[in-house]
Amino acid sequence: MTLQAQERRRRRNMEGFTLVELLVVLAIIGLIAAIATPQVLRYLGAAKVDTTKAQIRNVQSALELYYIDSGRYPSTEEGLVALETQPDSNSSWNGPYLKKGGTLKDAWGNAYKYESPAGDKQFQITSFGRDGREGGESQDADLRSE
């Protein structure tokens, strides 16, 4: 056997990975994913809560601008749409105060609930959280304007 033939045979035996090596690498990747995934999902959930709180604050600011121009907040019937398009009942409207006010959704894709008046407050903006239902805890908890 020539030197070149021996070299080719040696290279052929060394090329690629064995099945065992590939399985070990896949097992390690699986373990890392199993450990990291829950932590990433917790961060994602917290980010959605923070995003929704920030959106509620932005809508509150837009409602304050509406109040300055109109002397009143939009009624519950007019809703947040009044921040985007002029209601027939408001001749002093100077908006739009928000882009996409009528289609404003929280971080989970649910529409905000708007009430005015709301008990002892002038208005209330509510997101029902991840589950979209009243009540709940953690990411399912309701988020309300202050």
Topology:
Elements: H1 3-14, H2 19-70, E1 113-115, E2 124-127, E3 143-144
Antiparallel strand pairs: 1-2, 2-3
What descriptors fit this protein?
single chain; 146 residues; mainly alpha; Glycoprotein, Type 4 Pilin; 3-stranded antiparallel sheet; 44% helix; elongated
Structure summarized in a few sentences:
The chain has 146 residues and is mostly helical.
What does this protein structure show overall?
The chain is mainly α and 146 residues long. The chain has one domain (19-144): Glycoprotein, Type 4 Pilin. Helix content is 44%, strand content 6%. It has a three-stranded antiparallel beta sheet with strand order 1-2-3, covered by helices on one side. It is elongated. The mean pLDDT is 84.
